[in-house]
C-alpha cells in the first residue's frame, strides 16, 4: 500500500473463540504492514461466577495476561504491543485506540461473560456510536484474506465513508456495492410493476452516479452493483449467505442506511443474522 495504515487494536478476552479475532488481526497486520496492539480489559467488578478459572488460580492476573498475549504473537513475526488494563471495556477500548492512533478496532464473539457477553449488544453499539475507528466484528475462522467484500450503501455521501474505509482495509478485494430499496406496502399488497420498475431505475441511476463520483474505486476493474427490493437487514443477510461474502461493510446510518439511526436493535439483528464478518464504520459528523 502507498498509504501508511495506523496500528490495529485487538480487544480480546482470551477465550478460545476469540482466537478467530486474533488470527484475523494478525493477518491484517501483516497484509497492511502495520503494528498490532493487543488489549485485554479486566473488569473491576468481576465476580467468582464471571471470573475465568485461569484468573482465579493466579495471584497476579495482569502478569499472567501479559504473558499469555505475548506468547500468542511470539511466532507471528509482527510488531506487537500488549496492553492490560482494568475498568469499563468500552471506555478502555476507545481510550487505547486513540492513545495509539489505531486505524481499526478488532473484536470477536466470545464466551458469555465479561466483554464477550456484551459484544453483540452494548459494546458494539457504543463503539459504533463513539469510536473514531471502524470496528471489525470477527465471526469466522480467517481461512484466507478478505477477497469478496459486500459494501452496504444507500449511495449517499455519508455511505461513501464506509466504502473508503473498506478500500483502505482491503485494497485488493473484489467490491460489491449492495443497495436495498424499499417498495411501499410490500408484503401488504402486491406492488404495481410500474412502481417497482421505476424504483429500480432510480436506484440504478444513483449507483452509476455514486461510482462516477468515487475516484478511490479500483481502475480497470468494474465494480459490481446489486440492487434488491426489501428490508435492508433481511435481503443483505440473504445475499451475503448465498454468495458466501467474506466481509460485510456498513456505515452506522444514512438516509436509508443499513443500521439507521436506531443502531441498537437493528445492528444487533444484523450482526446476528449475517454469516460473515462485519465492518462497522461510524460516519464522521454524527452526534
Plain-language structure description:
Keywords: ATP-binding, Nucleotide-binding. Pfam families: Usp. InterPro entries: Rossmann-like_a/b/a_fold, Universal_stress_UspA, UspA. This protein is α/β, with parallel strands linked by helices. It is 40% helix and 20% strand. The chain is built from nine helices and ten strands. It has helices spanning 19-32, 53-56, 61-73, 89-99, 114-130, 157-169, 193-212, 232-243, 263-273, and strands spanning 8-11, 36-42, 80-86, 104-108, 135-138, 148-152, 174-181, 224-229, 247-251, 277-281. The protein has a ten-stranded mixed sheet, sandwiched between helices. The longest helix has 20 residues, at 193-212.
Index terms:
alpha/beta, ten-stranded mixed sheet, 10 strands, 287 residues, single chain, elongated, 40% helix
Say what oligomer this is.
Answer: single chain
Q: Strand order within the widest sheet?
A: 3-2-1-4-5-10-9-6-7-8
Element-by-element helix/strand order: EHEHHEHEHEEHEHEHEHE
Tally of helical runs:
9
Helix content: 40-55%
Radius of gyration: 20 Å
Which term fits the overall shape?
elongated
State the distance separating the first and last CA atoms: 32 Å
Average pLDDT across residues?
80
Stretches with pLDDT under 50, minimum 5 residues: 111-120, 254-264
Largest sheet: 10 strands, mixed
Fraction of residues in β-strands? 15-25%
Question: Structural class, judged by helices and strands?
Answer: alpha/beta
DSSP, total strands: 10
